Amino acid sequence: MKIAVFSTKAYDRKFLEKACQKYPHELTFLETRLTPATVGLAQNCDGVCVFVNDQLDAEVLSSMHQQGIRFVALRCAGFNNVALQTAKQLGIVVVRVPAYSPHAVAEHTAGLVLTLNRKLHRAYARVRDGNFSLDGLLGFDLVDRTVGIVGTGQIGTVFAKIMSGFGCRLLGYDKFPSETCRGLGMQYVELNELFSESDIISLHCPLTPETHHLINQQTIASMKEGVMIINTSRGAVIDTQAVIAGLKTGKIGHLGLDVYEEEADVFFEDLSNKVIPDDALSRLLTFPNVIITGHQAFFTEEAMMCIAETTLRNITEIAESSSCKNQL
Ligand code: NAD
């Protein structure tokens, strides 16, 4: 199989090249994102391999179809960036990596909670500057605090286990409750109750029409004063303007984001010598009680290896039988 691999950095290539050693596939690595302007780069390929911010809308899929491209191999679990119906109509097979390391994402989520609560990001900079004062660094004990988890699938469940270890009370919201979470003492409640009772709210649901802007002006108004909100799921689950307003009034006491609704043009790029083109992102970065990481929650050795190996296995299954167990 000849595959155009979009959105690749040196670290992606390292893991994919290693995983590809045992297969006869030909990988062409491209740094650019897949968009209507770049889809032509996949000419003469059997398939494309893509990541979270590649654009697989009807326009791009139609161009791919015209070029004879047969499949899309996602290097991620989420597939909100793919027009699945169109892909089905065009006969383009879409495969994904349904699970790699839920631990990677859940542990990063816990890292955001701890860093925000104990203000480690500020303490780090302060001490290095010779300032050993504690003013402004006051945190709270996690024990007995209420953690609300929206989406208790693979990642939400691991996060629940971690927070249970801190002695937190767990509330959950999911249409398909997890017995493992129940076993940890999690109480499943309606979303409004989760929002109004939680000290920390962590989002682990997929981005769907139902979860789009789940965190908005109304839902924020129903939350506790000074609530901590963490989003490591998908950016558009949060209405950015609403959280900025909530941060300005103090309603939101801490915000940890690994994803951002307009991340596609910014994340994974080094803009340190450039002007950030996004005003809302720039505003978020001015708050001392906001931490943003650039979609790095998945980024561990184990997860990268698993993503690369599963992707190559998916492609091989398509080559051998035109279908794959990880097909959407
Ligand atoms: P999963 O499918 O195992 O779990 C998702 C859970 O959300 C399921 O239990 C599902 O029933 C639930 N859900 C669906 N709609 C819901 C709704 N409207 N309200 C509440 N819950 C709902 O997926 P996962 O592996 O745990 O991943 C969760 C999300 O994390 C993914 O969809 C992806 O967007 C995101 N993710 C982010 C990173 C990162 O690096 N930041 C990495 C991997 C995954």
From TrEMBL:
Domain of life: Bacteria
Record has Oxidoreductase as a keyword: yes
GO MF: D-lactate dehydrogenase (NAD+) activity; NAD binding
The UniProt record lists the keyword Nucleotide-binding: no
Listed PROSITE patterns: D_2_HYDROXYACID_DH_1 (PS00065), D_2_HYDROXYACID_DH_2 (PS00670), D_2_HYDROXYACID_DH_3 (PS00671)
Residue span, D-isomer specific 2-hydroxyacid dehydrogenase catalytic domain: 3-327
EC number: 1.1.1.28
Record keywords: NAD, Oxidoreductase
Ranges where the D-isomer specific 2-hydroxyacid dehydrogenase NAD-binding domain occurs: 111-297
One Pfam family linked to the record: 2-Hacid_dh
PANTHER family recorded: 2-HYDROXYACID DEHYDROGENASE HOMOLOG 1-RELATED (PTHR43026)
Similarity section: Belongs to the D-isomer specific 2-hydroxyacid dehydrogenase family.
Annotated protein name in UniProt: D-lactate dehydrogenase
Organism annotation: Novipirellula artificiosorum
